[in-house]
Amino acid sequence: MANQLTAKDLEVIAGILKAEGMACKKARVYSKTLTDTALAACMQDVADCHQERFNKLLKMLEGK
Q1: Average pLDDT in the 24-44 region?
Q2: Using CB atoms within 10 A as the burial measure, which of 10, 11, 17, 64 is most buried?
Q3: Three-class SS state of 30
Q4: CB within 8 A of 13, min separation 6: which ones?
Q5: Rounded distance between C-alpha atoms, residue 16 and residue 62, angstroms
């Protein structure tokens, strides 16, 4: 089937998931520790973007 993922595809996707997860976690930590409210809000937005990408990629893998 053309839609089958190879082992290499899965390896690459796993790396992207890991990177998105780490970026999200770091941005959330920064958003909670920054004293500048504008920067904290910006970091929250960054975290939300990474979380959204992570979730979309997972849904693609699950076939939903």
Answers
A1: 97
A2: 17
A3: helix
A4: 5, 57, 61
A5: 16
Q: What pLDDT sits at residue 2?
A: 52
Q: Are 24 and 51 in contact (CB under 8 A)?
A: yes
Structure tokens of 51? 């979380």
Q: Which two tokens stand for residue 42?
A: 């910006």
| Residue 60 buriedness (CB in 10 A; 0-12 / 13-18 / 19+) | exposed
Helices first, then strands: H and E counts in the chain: 2, 0
As a whole number, mean pLDDT of residues 28-55 equals: 97
Output the pLDDT for position 1: 41
Distance, in Å, from the CA atom of 47 to the CA atom of 26, rounded to the nearest integer, reads 8
Close Cβ partners of 48 (under 8 Å, ≥ 6 residues apart): none
- Give pLDDT, residue 60: 84
